[in-house]
Every structure is written in structure tokens, then in C-alpha cells.
Amino acid sequence: MLYKYNKQTLQFERIGMKNYIYSVIFAIFIFSSLSAGVATKLVIEKIPVIYKESTPEFSEKLLKQELEQIKMPFKDIVYAQIILETGHFTSPVFKQNNNLTGMKLSYTRSNFQNGENLGFAVYKDWKLSVYDYCLYINKYCNNMSEEEFIQFLDEYYCPNQQYKEKIKQLRTKL
After folding, report:
1. Is the same domain home to 89 and 147?
2. Would the N or C end of the chain have less CB density within 10 A of its end CB?
3. What are the CA-CA distances from residue 72 to residues 30, 43, 86, 97, 130 (Å)?
4. Strand partners, 121
5. Which position has the higher pLDDT, 166 or 27?
6. What is the pLDDT of residues 98-134, one digit of tens each?
7. pTM above 0.70, yes or no
8. Could you tell me the residue range of the domain that residue 26 belongs to?
């Protein structure tokens, strides 16, 4: 049995099944009408990268050219980072995942990632790894000085590993 409270008589009154069904149908109609008018807006970041399907075999020379061509922010720091992250291009994460920068799989930003392996993001080829890292820098490190960028890497990108000192040492050797 269903009841409703009558404010005038201050008593509960029995609701007939017919009225209950009409109330439920009316509520469904109102909610569906309201939700039908709500538009969902999908926002996609614009990525100014031209990508060709056929990427040449990886080489340090091509990597340096790519960093220059896409105007990678802090390219000398990024190059030192790549050397460090890949163990001078010998790490399994680089060889198996085409991951030059040790990026983890991202769920919160635009990216070029294609899954996960060994706990790190996988890329179709090495250039997509470079483009993805460029997106990362542009999202999180925009308008930073070189010193602020290196500090960011030390605190957030690879904390507790003396990353800042390692990058600075590699940078002077290159």
C-alpha cells in the first residue's frame, strides 16, 4: 500500500494504484524531457603537429632534427633527459615501447600514447614519443624559465632521484 501525507487534515491517505501509475509516468516524462534538451560538449585540444605515417628508423641525428623542427621547449634539457631516460638508447622501455622520455600512461591530457607496457606508455614510433612529451611540456611547463623547468622535473617528473643534478651533468657533457 502507498500513502501520501495530507497537510490539511494532518493524516496519511491511501493512494490508489491508478494515481500512483499516473504520477510515475508523469515523472518519467518530465525527466526525459529535461534531459533531452541538455547538450553534451566535447572539447578536443588542437594539436599543431603534422605527422606522416612512415617514420624513418630512429637515429640521434634525426632526433635532434625533430626537436629543432618542432621547436621543442628546452630542447637541450630534453635531449639530456632522453639520454638519461633511455640509458643512451639501450633501455627496454625505449626499445619495446618507443618511449624516449619515460612517460607513464596519461588519462588526463591529450596524448599520442598507444597503451602500456613495462609500466610505461607505448608509442607507435619514436616521433610520437617526442610529440607526446612536447604536449606534456606545453600543458604543465608553459612560461617557465630553464631553471624552473629543471626544478619541475626534479620535483614532479622524477622526484627523489637527484634528477636535477643528473640532467645538469649530462647537459654539460653534450
Report:
1. yes
2. N
3. 53, 25, 18, 21, 9
4. 116
5. 166
6. 999 999 999 999 999 999 999 999 999 999 999 999 9
7. no
8. 2-36
